[in-house]
Amino acid sequence: MPQNDGVRFTSSSLKIPLPPPQRSPFNFPFCSQALASQIVKTRNSFAQLVDSVKTRSEFKQFSFFRPGFSHFCNRFPVSTQSALIGRPSLLCSASLSLTRSDESTQLLIPKSELLCSASLALNRIADESTTQQQKGHSSAASLNPSPNQSRSDEERVLISEVLVRNKDGEALERKDLEMEALQALKASRANSALTVREVQEDVHRIIHSGYFSSCMPVAVDTRDGIRLVFQVEPNQEFQGLVCEGANVLPAKFLEDAFHDGHGKVINLRRLDEVISSTNGWYMERGFFGLVSAVEILSGGILRLQVSEAEVNNISIRFLDRKTGEPTTGKTKPETILRQLTTKKGQVYSMLQGKRDVETILTMGIMEDVSIIPQPAGDTGKVDMVMNVVERPSGGFSAGGGISSGITSGPLSGLVGSFAYSHRNVFGRNQKLNVSLERGQIDSIFRINYTDPWIEGDDKRTSRTIMVQNSRTPGTLVHDQLEGSSLTIGRVTAGIEFSQPIRPKWSGTSGLFFQYAGVRDEKGHPVIKDAYSSPLTASGKTHDEMLLAKFESVYTGSGDHGSSMLAVSMEQGLPVLPEWLSFNRVNVRARKGVEIGPASLLLSLSGGHVLGNFPPHEAFAIGGTNSVRGYEEGAVGSGRSYAVGSGEVSFPILGPVEGVIFADYGTDLGSGQTVLGDPAGARLKPGSGYGYGFGIRVDSPLGPLRLEYAFSDKHAKRFHFGVGHRN
């Protein structure tokens, strides 16, 4: 029979038991405390046995040869002597068996099958009345041990021989099991004087070896002395496994746990390890589940009963931010519930619940979230109550920043911003943002409306509708002569969809219309710069284009130092003859490596453009987020580019870090292929490198970066930035 043919799984809904009771003397956690107490009473049963043996008339005739044993046989009640004379001298027994639990066990493990029981009892070969009399005497002795019984525990009897036999008194068929039992003995040795307590402890040791379901110590009087025989009943050989109630536990887990035990005698110690391992599997994964019952069936079939707590109901409870009392929330409950990965009917997992809490917090509309699992009556299931505290939905904000496109002037690069945002429109977690950023030259007015999860979509697709009017300096590509400047104006409108593709991967697609033109410092439209290079692709004062955008992003842990890969493509769609047609591909990659307390960050980016595109859309190389040591765009601008960077950062003090860096960038010889060759007209080198050092300080706005760089042209520059490099 193949090893796993006897394994099958069934499912059923069971109650979760209360915490397990204390360990029994056998150290098997699945044995009940009530049954373990029966083992403790063995001491009194043995004491009663010794009292009975002392007065056996049959033993008195041997007192001349064994005076020590005669001393133990002088107080047996006369009323029972006749029943014992001529009978085999079976004195007592200890047994461990799998039975059905009594009411006390049911209190510990509700409605579960019996695990196991251990009982030590006094057995005599006598008629029913003698047996009943003995049971009554044993019970009385257990409850009120006499002084004679206590003394009997300490009195010793000389044992001439120690044997291990089966329950019929015959030699065991398997010698390896006999050796297991003999090796378990500690006190019981041939030619040794034993007390009742020592025999009792050896019985426990044999049972504790795990190979035997019962053990009966039998004292036999022979002419050579007292022979102590441990009559044992080995467990059945393992032939198959039935596991009930396991919905999330993989079958492979139990198959691996039992694969080497097929055809071997069931060892309760090994079984205890498997049960502990199974319970550990549930605990490591945060599941509410455990093995609640074990039973050995006829034919060597092992039955495991697993109890798993399923989610019965999920409810949302809104709490007041100030008082913590239940209140009415603005967010629709279904908006929260659909974010949860925990569903009704699933086995409740604490780890999954923790991830659900983090997911709700990332929505940005909750100040605090907690989950409280509660028992769902006596169904054995769990009701999940989620307490949430809402944040204020909307408000105004103001701030500032730095634009990298302006490199001169007393307030070079400073930008102020003002915005209104509502993060929970209609109580559906939809976002509305209206913002204005204004600097010396550049300005951006933007309206965004985002639905993070389109209703009715099961793939978590988000939708963003955007309208934007921007003015940015044209110095990145078309830096002018002294006293003049250019401004690139763009009006953009479009829609964008994003969704997670797989873990750590996300995808974005969108469609945008853009109207772009260039103006001089007086606001007049211009089509050529100071070097007579064209500023538009169409030759008119403005270019029009319909862009289809596709992007895929991989992020590791989400930290800046983790791995990242982003691939994007923009395709100009010439729906109308005057609309531009081009294709732009851009790739960015980043990899962080920890080196002791320091960290190494490597980054690489590159791109290429095919088709007819405006010169101001060429890839600009050089500056704070490109090659440090150069001004913005001073290395070159081309149809293609590649920029590589390496940084080593190390802690200095608290939030302050030091950094050493080196950058390199090139247009791959594509500068002259840009319409009008604006880089060549300005004698830009097309490639260059820079290196330097700096400090970074963590702040609520993000990392504040101050860097001092040297270029290969022997230029020196300070660079200041907010946030991580692109």
Automatic annotation (TrEMBL):
Keywords annotated in UniProt: Chloroplast, Membrane, Plastid, Plastid outer membrane
Keyword Disulfide bond among record annotations: no
One GO location term (cellular component): chloroplast outer membrane
Family affiliation: Belongs to the OEP80 (TC 1.B.33.2) family.
Protein name: Outer envelope protein 80, chloroplastic
Domain of life: Eukaryota
Region described as Disordered: 128-154
Gene Ontology BP annotations: chloroplast organization; embryo development ending in seed dormancy
Keyword Plastid included in the entry's annotation: yes
Species name: Fagus sylvatica (Beechnut)
